[in-house]
């Protein structure tokens, strides 16, 4: 039977853990609200951008002069996987789920005989993929110092990716991140960013014919790189919200588990204490009877 | 013809303005253009410059760098890569974006070894920035 002092110490330590997880949960909740607001705020831009892009892509896409970012290089031998994860852990399966999705994709491509290159954003993803796919890693973007994700961060990543594309380092780029549904549900998602794919809203042909200034091709060439940055930006924001959501529910679970553990330990402690008292009484009584 | 039209200015990070306006002066890549209600549908890319909005209750100005504008007969939406109200534009921000433009320019120069095209584009971007700065009375160190 564990002695009373040990039990008391354990209860105290679990109580401290509970305080920490509770605090982390509340911090995550506050950050989640901010992350959601940021995601919300970026939506008008992204929506309009994609609307214009898809109508442009539809009219220029078919021609031979279409930019490579849209039509692709004509091959799909080398794949770049852009894996976006968090910088911090303690957020449930958030990082692991993204890494798992990316790993499965990478292994499928390797099995098909394609070349795979991996660019990671966020420390956790890099650490998880390093073990078995370390030799495919071509770079890492560190966002540890970044307090609040800005468009600039996305732009930097996009510039890196686009430079690699211009140098012919890869043919297809796919981005992995987690889509935020709600606090308990985040869906790891794969999105092809190069060559760009735009959802063609069929049947709703553009009702207005636009004049383009300068030419359609020039605008498209100007906008496609921005499109990459925009999709990376919205993925980063989704990821940010997902991370906080995942952390919030993970910490909620941890707090609850700690609470249960404290209850169990307290019962054990009380029983032991009662046993000690009973023992002492028996000793006293039997001592008195012997006289 | 309607007297006013819907105007939206959005950047990736937030929506800056959404209002009924009389006219919008847009710094397009090929030159300034002013959109008023009933303007023919146009999409144009932007150069760094000042976006002037004439509303029913006065004029407001925004500094924009890059992006594009979508003009329809009933409204204008400007999607700017970076946009802020003119009052918020400070020397520090100016210096910062000048620095960025200069970096791009020197990088392009190195990478493309003075071929026309990307280098010219970057040079134009830089000179547009300088022009914008001078226009606003902010010094743009060359």
UniProtKB/TrEMBL annotation, chain A:
GO terms for molecular function: ATP binding; proton-transporting ATP synthase activity, rotational mechanism. It comes from the Bacteria. Keywords: ATP synthesis, Cell inner membrane, Cell membrane, CF(1), Hydrogen ion transport, Ion transport, Membrane, Transport. It is a peripheral membrane protein. InterPro entries: ATP_synth_F1_ATPase_gsu (IPR035968), ATP_synth_F1_gsu (IPR000131), ATP_synth_F1_gsu_CS (IPR023632). It is found in: Cell membrane; Membrane; Thylakoid. It holds the Pfam family ATP-synt. Coiled coil: none annotated. GO terms for cellular component: plasma membrane; proton-transporting ATP synthase complex; thylakoid. GO terms for biological process: proton motive force-driven plasma membrane ATP synthesis. Produces ATP from ADP in the presence of a proton gradient across the membrane. The gamma chain is believed to be important in regulating ATPase activity and the flow of protons through the CF(0) complex. F-type ATPases have 2 components, CF(1) - the catalytic core - and CF(0) - the membrane proton channel. CF(1) has five subunits: alpha(3), beta(3), gamma(1), delta(1), epsilon(1). CF(0) has three main subunits: a, b and c. This is ATP synthase gamma chain. It comes from Sulfitobacter undariae.
From TrEMBL, chain B:
It is a peripheral membrane protein. Its main location: membrane. One of its GO terms (cellular component) is endomembrane system. InterPro entries: ATP_synth_F1_dsu/esu (IPR001469), ATP_synth_F1_dsu/esu_N (IPR020546), ATPsynth_dsu/esu_N (IPR036771). Residues 5-83 form the ATP synthase F1 complex delta/epsilon subunit N-terminal domain. It comes from the Bacteria. CDD domains: F1-ATPase_delta. One of its GO terms (molecular function) is proton-transporting ATP synthase activity, rotational mechanism. Belongs to the ATPase epsilon chain family. F-type ATPases have 2 components, CF(1) - the catalytic core - and CF(0) - the membrane proton channel. CF(1) has five subunits: alpha(3), beta(3), gamma(1), delta(1), epsilon(1). CF(0) has three main subunits: a, b and c. PANTHER family: ATP SYNTHASE DELTA/EPSILON CHAIN, ATP SYNTHASE EPSILON CHAIN, CHLOROPLASTIC. Produces ATP from ADP in the presence of a proton gradient across the membrane. This is ATP synthase epsilon chain.
